[in-house]
Recover the amino acids of this structure.
């Protein structure tokens, strides 16, 4: 909101300067009429001199200056009567739509705020440059500043709508986004280091099936050799698959006398 406040301050200051100059030109330094009234009177005189002028066109311009939206009929009238103003209107609408699309692509709340500030800052830079340019007439300066203020008002309207819909609140903060990325990387490393539970179960089932198949085809001598190997592996603390150890343990118990198992 700071940039909007600065832009409003620049515009207000320029209005006061323009108002003072108009008072000097007309010799009415003690008048308290606002600038809009001074400009309205000047435009009315121009319309009277030109045979009445175009009141409908003036009404359309005033509507745009107030931030209003034109009807389809008013847009067609503006396009015919003031092609330059119509081109500016279309350009501003395209910019506003582009701004809204960029807001939707923002990944964090901070990114949305940076986008907003970038757009507003361009208007503030332009206003500052115009304010200190002595080659630009005061009325033209005021016109440019009012255009930039209207531009910022449109962008702020889009930003407020973005917030009102809840889209801004749905965005994570930069801190939340960073933590989510770190958690995702950590989870990836854990998956690489340790097989998943599902993979463990599949591997154990396959191992048990292999042990069962092997047991069916084994001779008593082969089982003795297996038990001997298991005993040596146990002594040497060699790791064996859980399924393999279970099968061997069961076979070993079945081969022992009953009194030995009970002991």
């Amino acid at each position: 909101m700071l940039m909007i406040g600065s832009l409003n301050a620049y515009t207000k200051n320029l209005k006061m300067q323009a108002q003072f100059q108009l008072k000097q030109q007309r010799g009415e330094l003690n008048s308290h009429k606002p600038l809009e009234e001074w400009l309205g009177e000047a435009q009315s005189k121009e319309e009277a001199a030109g045979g009445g002028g175009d009141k409908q066109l003036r009404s359309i311009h005033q509507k745009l200056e107030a931030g209003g939206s034109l009807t389809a009929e008013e847009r067609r009238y503006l396009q015919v009567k003031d092609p330059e103003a119509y081109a500016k209107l279309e350009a501003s609408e395209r910019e506003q739509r582009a701004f809204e699309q960029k807001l939707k692509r923002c990944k964090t709340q901070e990114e949305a705020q940076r986008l907003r500030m970038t757009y507003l800052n361009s208007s503030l830079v332009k206003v500052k440059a115009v304010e200190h340019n002595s080659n630009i007439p005061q009325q033209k300066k005021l016109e440019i500043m009012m255009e930039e203020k209207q531009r910022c008002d449109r962008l702020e309207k889009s930003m407020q709508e973005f917030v009102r819909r809840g889209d801004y609140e749905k965005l994570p903060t930069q801190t939340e986004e960073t933590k989510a990325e770190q958690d995702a990387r950590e989870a990836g490393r854990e998956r690489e280091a340790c097989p998943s539970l599902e993979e463990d179960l599949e591997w154990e089932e396959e191992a048990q099936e292999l042990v069962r198949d092997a047991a069916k085809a084994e001779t008593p001598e082969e089982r003795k050799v297996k038990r001997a190997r298991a005993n040596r592996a146990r002594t040497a603390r060699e790791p064996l698959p859980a399924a393999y150890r279970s099968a061997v343990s069961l076979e070993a118990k079945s081969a022992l006398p009953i009194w030995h198992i009970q002991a």
Observations:
- The chain has two domains: 2-178, 199-262.
- The chain is about 80% helix and 0% strand.
